[in-house]
Amino acid sequence: MDSGDLVVKVGDSFAATHPIGRSGTDIFMETLENKGPDAGMEIEYYASGQLGKQRDMPAVLRTGIAQIAAISPAYVGTQLPLSNVGDLPGFTQDPCIGGDAMLEIMQPGTTLFETELAPQDMRPLWVAYIPGYEAMSGAFPVDSVEALHGKIMRSTGGAADRVVDRAGAAGVSMPLGDMYEAISRGTVEGTLASPISITPYSLEEVISYSTDGARLGSFTVTYSVSNKVWNEMSPEQQDVLTEASELAQVAVCEELTRSMDESKAAMRDSGVQMLEVTDSQRPEWEALAEPVREAWVNDLESIGLPARQVLEDFNSALERAEAEHGSERS
I need a surface site. Which of 26, 37, 74, 280 has the fewest CB within 10 A? Predict the structure, then answer.
């Protein structure tokens, strides 16, 4: 290492076996480690929460503990309320379309960047977008929105809490790793989650029913560099970071797409009844999603944040990404 090299510490909370870790993160780090030294960068990687939990990541970036960090808006809703837009219900089921759209609206010059990300010293490099949140239960068929009424449902926080509340269920916040025992004992009756997140915890063993296609939300992760650090980088260093990010963006969405199909198949093989949302049922679930999106806009606008503009920007970016990627997967 040259004494003049820039030390770039990268921190995240994902294990190497996680779909994000084994795809986007893997190729991102490989590219940085291979090409960083020639551009005067020394790369250090701290995986699986070594530098802090998910809710700590904005502070880890802002204070310079890391120069690049993986940040999930759902876990830091009070700091990044506008960035939660991608987690709202009713949007795309395609990780590539959702990821590209979120990355677009997080770039310098956009409302979201200038209002929220720049003040937090965040410059998003690439985005992992886990879509397809479904309603799942251990004991009751989730064949309608009404079926959730009065049930005790685990929620991830952020936008998912709004969905649970709107459905008339009682939300309980807990890590997904605690769900197996909670459902087994009946202390919670179900969860909102993406199938991608179910099989790593063997939850298909205790879940009996799941919607398929309810579009109840998503989970966004952005690998971001400190904007201050970015502005101090040489053009060569910025180029390396850009190349690594573009490769990661493609790799992660392809892996998440593959993982979604594999996870749904594993759930079916374990006997989970996947209750497909039919065309006739679609309006009922959409009627749940639209008020959640509107309430999100109204709540944030009431405290002076441009939520309507950010939502419109996201919808427009989704249309462009959809056109680029072709027809959306069902």
Answer: 280
Q: Given strand 190-193, what is the order of strands in its sheet? A: 170-173, 152-155, 190-193, 134-137, 209-212, 273-276
Cβ atoms < 10 Å from Cβ of 149: 10
CA–CA distances in Å: residue 239 to residues 39, 45, 79, 245, 246: 9, 19, 29, 10, 11
pLDDT digits (tens, 9 = 90+) for 255-309: 999 999 999 999 999 999 999 999 999 999 999 999 999 999 999 999 999 999 9
Distance CA 299, CA 321 (A): 28
**pLDDT at residue 14 in the model:** 81
Distances (CA, A) of 40 to 29, 43, 68, 189: 16, 10, 16, 53
Model confidence band, residue 329 (pLDDT cutoffs 50, 70, 90): very low
Backbone φ and ψ for 218, nearest 5 degrees, come out as -145, 180
Q: Which ranges constitute the DSSP H helices of 63-108?
A: 95-105
Tokens 């009996």 appear where? 208
Q: Are 195 and 176 in contact (CB under 8 A)?
A: no
CA distance 229 to 69: 12
Backbone φ, ψ for residue 93 (5° rounding): -95, 0
- What residues does 221 pair with on adjacent strands? 128
Give the tens place of pLDDT for each residue, 221-268: 999 999 999 999 999 999 999 999 999 999 999 999 999 999 999 999
Q: Smallest Cα–Cα separation from 23: which of 198, 303, 274, 223?
A: 223
Rounded distance between C-alpha atoms, residue 33 and residue 328, angstroms: 35
User: In terms of pTM, does the model score above 0.70?
Assistant: yes
Tokens standing for 106? Answer: 């997080």
Query: Cβ neighbours of residue 86 under 8 Å, at least 6 residues apart?
Result: 73, 98, 101, 102, 129, 218, 220, 314
Q: Contact at 8 Å (CB) between 120 and 57?
A: no
Average pLDDT of every residue of the chain: 94
